[in-house]
Structures are given as C-alpha cells and as structure tokens.
Amino acid sequence: MKMKTLSALLLSTLVLSNVAVSAAEGEETRVYGSNGVVEFIANDEPTDPVDPENPDPSNPVEPIDPTDPEGPNPGTDGPLSIDYASSLHFGVNKITNADQTYYADAQEFNGELAGSSRGNYVQISDHRGTVAGWTLTVAQTGGQFESKTAKQFKVLTGSLITFADAKPDSNAKDAPAPTAVESFELDSEGASSLVMSAKDGQGAGTWVDYFGESEVMTINGQEVNKNKAVTLDVPGSTPKEATVYKTSLTWTLTDAPGQ
C-alpha cells in the first residue's frame, strides 16, 4: 500500500513538472517603448536677492538699503536681469585735513539673516536659456560726491570709490562661471567700469559678485560691521562741511557676450 502511494506521488510530481516546463516554453514576450520629454522656456519672472555666501534662489533674503529706508529698488524685468546691487554707506566720520580711506558698511539683512552681515554684492540672473553671454558694468552717474545743503564746500573733490576682492559665485556649480574683474575704480565723470562678463557658453543661471567680507571694526568708539574691500578715498586737502555728501551708481547689464 505504501509502495502504491509513493509511486502515485512520484508520478504526480513528474506530470506537474512537465506541465510547468511546457507552460514556460510556451510563453511569449512583448516589448514596447515610450518616451519622456520636458521642455524649458525663458523665464521673465523676477529673481529675489540671495545670500552672497550661499547663493541659492530657493532661499531668498531681504537685504537692507543703508541709504534709503524704503529701499532697496526692485530688480529689473526680463529673463536677463539685475536682481540686486548694494548701496554704499561710508559711515559718519570726523572732519580732518589728513588723507583718509573710509570703508563701506557691510551688507545687512532683515528676515532670516537679520543680525548677519556680508560683503557688498551685485546679483544678476540669465534665464534666457540661450547661454549666449552677457556683460555687467557700473558707472558713477551721480558725479562727484556732492551736498545740497553745504554752504560753501559742496563737492568732495578728488574722492574715489574702489571695489576689490571680487568673487563670482552661484549654486549652478556645473555652469561655466563668468569672469569677475578683481578690482576696479569708479570714474566720477561717469565712465563705465567693467564688473563681470560671461562669454558665449558661460554665466547661465543666477550669479553674485561679492566684494570682500564683513568684519567688525571700532570707529568713533563704536563697533560696526565694515567691508574693507569697498572704499572711499578722500584727500585731506579737500575741505568738508558737517553735512551729508551723496552720489549715485548705475549698474548696466547687456546681452553682449564678454571678450
């Protein structure tokens, strides 16, 4: 009886195995291809200012304009845009007949970066999608520092603004970087100075050019955040009055590729 049962089990196993093999041999496979597509177009929406030390547009910041409590001005329109440029405040200083170099106040912020300071900076975005290059310049279009309220000495004759220690940066690490002019002086008569340029194939995305860094200095007995890379030189021979002197800068971005 046991032998008959065992024989039946063996026979069943062989039959099932043959059926499985036959089924596998009889299977048919069909292959079909499909596609994945994504397309991009130029982006003409404004780009908010970014942290120059961590230039990620996903984390916008709120820079303070030290010259205008209602500022800063909004960025320019279009897919090739100037998003931000620091205004420069060279502090409150004692009158002297000695040659002096005054340092710009460091860039301060509201919002999440409140209490932090950075080097002064300019930010541009190229969202055209053509990677065709661009050129950024700046000019002292307001003429020499001038006071509207001075009684006699209305102009700071011989004064000179200098930018130094320029560093371009972006979160677009794989994009070829533009070239920043390491240091340049401004012409008080309004001639443009080259700041940064991108050749054809360079400078796509959002880029900052930041000058120097913030450091704490003691001036007139107070600790202030200054930037030694952006300076105003004033000759001691230039007479000054106890008032405010101002000028203005104009930053210009063109679609002409760098050389």
From TrEMBL:
<dbReference type="InterPro" id="IPR027994">
    <property type="entry name" value="WxL_dom"/>
</dbReference>
<feature type="signal peptide">
    <location>
        <begin position="1"/>
        <end position="23"/>
    </location>
</feature>
<keyword id="KW-0732">Signal</keyword>
<feature type="compositionally biased region" description="Acidic residues">
    <location>
        <begin position="45"/>
        <end position="54"/>
    </location>
</feature>
<feature type="region of interest" description="Disordered">
    <location>
        <begin position="40"/>
        <end position="82"/>
    </location>
</feature>
<dbReference type="Pfam" id="PF13731">
    <property type="entry name" value="WxL"/>
</dbReference>
<feature type="domain" description="WxL">
    <location>
        <begin position="28"/>
        <end position="257"/>
    </location>
</feature>
<protein>
    <submittedName>
        <fullName>Cell surface protein</fullName>
    </submittedName>
</protein>
